[in-house]
Every structure is written in structure tokens, then in C-alpha cells.
Amino acid sequence: MLDRDRNTMPPMNEAIPFNRPRLAGNEHAYIDEALLSGKLSGNGEFAARCCASLGRRLDAERVLITPSCTAALEMTGILADLAPGDEVIMPSFTFVSTANAFALRGAVPVFVDSEPETLNIDPDAAAAAITSRTRAIVIVHYGGVACDMDRITALVDRHDLVLIEDAAHSLPATWHGRQLGSIGHMSTFSFHETKNVHCGEGGALAINDRSLVGRAEVVQEKGTDRSRFFRGEVDKYTWQDLGSSYLLSEVGAAFLWAQLERLDEITAERRGTWNRYHDAFADLEKAGALRRPFIPEGCEHSGHLYYLLMPTSAARDELIRRLDEEGIKSVFHYSPLHESPAGNRLGRAAGPIEVAPSASARLLRLPLWSNMGDERVDRVVDGVLRHAPKVATDSARPHRTNQRA
Ligand SMILES: *Cc1c(COP(=O)(O)O)cnc(C)c1O
Questions:
Q1: Which of 34, 181, 361, 376 could form an S-S bond across to 313 if both were Cys, CB 3.0 to 4.6 Å?
Q2: Taking 90 as the threshold, does the pLDDT of residue 263 lie above it?
């Protein structure tokens, strides 16, 4: 049981938020323990527990916990040794932090299209975007569903590139039994309140390439060798390299530990809701009213998000509106980065990009949080079943011309 109100019936008309950050149970106790310990800055006892647990799960050389996934991505930008003008290939269909981290180093984000089935980066598009300036590829396992790792790793090996996994949705999720985030040279995780486990704001950097471990510690500690100083390996610490303050405080780490110790339980619950949505909408998919997420063979997803792809943008907008009228909050994302003002100015698109804008216009995400309760899930299912066929048919009528297909 994750918290007190597990079996309480929500009143019939209670609004169902898109996300509700949940407590796993031991947050208060662990934060009290941290407060009493007298050590509140980064890399304390709770941080060590979080790093060790994630390190075991990932079989990583080293895991560092950070203030956010954004911060962890910035660290990978520094560790990849990018120079101005170097190119970093990434999907257009992702969150801004995936690109920002590299643009901050003066590198050029090169945006490519996604595969229509998974909305993950299209390996052929990535291959076609490679130039003599390409240094790295950043992949995002959308919804915790693995990218095509055979083709991505072949590409990375052939061109000697740095592979960074933005695994913000992927804890825990696997590809042929391997935890996502354990395959690239580096990977990043988010513990933002919208993710499977969280501490309000938080993140992690996993280092799988042993040669990067020492520098990662330096980058996290403002560019100094303070971590070695604390281990007694040097007698003073000095400025060694570029860096910033990329530590999560011990209060955040105590919160995070309470969540991480129940990661599998929380994930099982989210997957349960995901499966109920997936089963409930199978017939709508058959009837052509919408498309459900596609999970390739060998992939175990994280239950992070459940999305529907409607036939048109108008149908998506109308479904969001009708659900909203019933107090059910559904949302959409991502605005394709190659069409954004900063993406245009700081990066460039490579090849035709059609899937990203089309998905962005037609996708909606249903409420999905830990411990939602059966009644809320039933209400969401019922709302979609009642409205989706109608909005799909209406939006297909020829007189509705103001729609993006
Ligand atoms: C949430 C998210 C991030 C950013 O995470 P923060 O911890 O909020 O910085 C980055 N990339 C992806 C794909 C995300 O979903």
C-alpha cells in the first residue's frame, strides 16, 4: 500500500488531474533523519543510497544524483567535450532540455524525425544526418519504450560517436532484458514530480564509460576535485575543469530514497493502469478511431505515460475539450523542436520531418499516476469510449477544413 487513501472512492464528479505527485510512505521519516544528521549538502548518506541502488539496477560504472535531468544532460554536454560548431543529432520530438544542454556548449542540435510506430528517433534519419562535424547522438526512449538499439549502437560504433540516452521516462524499463540507460556512454534520468518516482525536482546521471567517471565527479563539484579531497585522495581541492553545482541536497536525496525503495511497486501500479487503458481501447483502434502506443518485441516499458493518437488535430483538440468538461484532464506534448524559435536559431533540421509535427498535433496523454484507483481509471476509460468515435468521425467530415492532418 503506497498511502492512506488507496481504496477511497473519489466522488463521482471529482476532477481527475493529469498527474498527482504521490508520496511513497517514508518521505517524512527520511527527511527528518537527514535534518538530524547535520549534513544537508550534496553527496550525503541518502545520496549514497540512491546512487548505489541506481548503480546496481543499471550496472553502471557510476551514478550521480543531480538537481534535475536537465542538469544531468548539461553534464553530458560538458563530458562529451563538445566544441562550438560540433553537431549533436537528436529527435525533434522531445523535451527542450534534450537540446538545450548541447546548445549551451555552442554545439548545433541537428533534429531528425521519429519512427511512426514508437515516436522514437528514426535510425535511418539519424544515419542520413551524419556529417564530419557529428560528435554525439542523444536518444530519448519515448514513454520508456526502447529505441531501436541494434541500429543505434551500430551507427554509433561505425562513426565513433558519443551515445547519450535521455532516459527520463525509462526508470525502470528494459530492452531485451537490459535496463534502459545502461547502453549509451552516459544516460540521464528525471525525478521531476511528473515522472514515475520523484523528489519534486531531481535527476541522475549514469556513467557507463569508465574513462568518464573521474571527470563526471569534477564537473558535478563546480569543476573541482573536491570529491577526491573528501575521500582523502588529495590534500586540498582546486579548480580542475569546467563544471557547475550539479548536486542534489540531502533533503531531496532523503525524499528520493523513500521513492526509489518502492520503485518496482510504483511501476507495477502504473503498468496496471497502462494495461487497463490499452485493453479498453483495442476496439477503438480496430475501428480506426485512434491509435494506441506500440511496444516492439523485447521491450518492457515503464508505464510512464499513456497516449492516444487521434486521426486529426481537430479530433484531438475536441477530445481534450470533451474530457475536460467531465473533469478529466488530458494534455499533449511535444512541440517539435525544429519548428521552435530557439530550435530554428540554434539548431537545424536534417531530412524531411513529418512524423514529429503530425504526432504533436494528434497526440493526447491520459491521466496516469501511481495509485489512481480503479474508479478514476474507469471514468477515464468511459469518457474516451463515449467521445472518441464521435470526434474521430466528425473531424473526418470534409467541411472541417481548419485541421492539420
Ligand atoms: C522530464 C524530461 C526532461 C527534464 O527533466 P527535469 O528533471 O525536469 O529536468 C528531459 N527529457 C525528457 C525526455 C523528459 O521527459
A1: 361
A2: yes
* pLDDT score of 377 more than 80: yes
How far is the C-alpha of 143 from the C-alpha of 173, rounded, in Å? 9
Ligand 1 touching residue 76 (CB < 6 A):
no
Q: Measured from the CB, is residue 190 less than 6 Å from ligand 1?
A: yes
Q: What is the pLDDT of residue 40?
A: 97
Q: What are the counts of helices (DSSP H) followed by strands (DSSP E) for the chain?
A: 15, 13
**Ligand 1 pocket, 70 CB below 6 A?**
yes
Over range 213-218, report the average pLDDT.
98
- CA–CA distance, 41 with 308 (Å, rounded to integer): 42
Q: For all residues of the chain together, what is the average pLDDT? A: 95
Q: Are strands 178-179 and 348-349 parallel, antiparallel or unpaired?
A: unpaired
Domains of the chain: 27-260 (3.40.640.10), 263-395 (3.90.1150.10)
Contacts of 129 (CB under 8 A, 6+ apart): 89, 110, 112, 350, 351
Beta bridge partners of 334: none
CA of 168 to the centre of ligand 1 (A): 5
Q: Pull the grid cell for residue 292.
A: 494506441
| pLDDT bracket for residue 4 (50, 70, 90) | very low
> Counting atoms of ligand 1 from 1, which one is nearest the CA of 94?
13
From 19, 66, 70, 189, give the residue whose CB has the most ligand 1 atoms within 8 Å, as the site to mutate. Answer: 70
Q: Decide: 103 and 347 in contact? Cβ < 8 Å.
A: yes
Task: Assess whether the C-beta atom of 187 lies below 6 angstroms from ligand 1.
Answer: no
Tell me the pLDDT tens digit for each residue of 386-404: 999 999 888 877 654 444 4
Ligand 1 pocket mutation, candidates 92, 94, 166, 246, criterion most atoms within 8 A of CB: 166
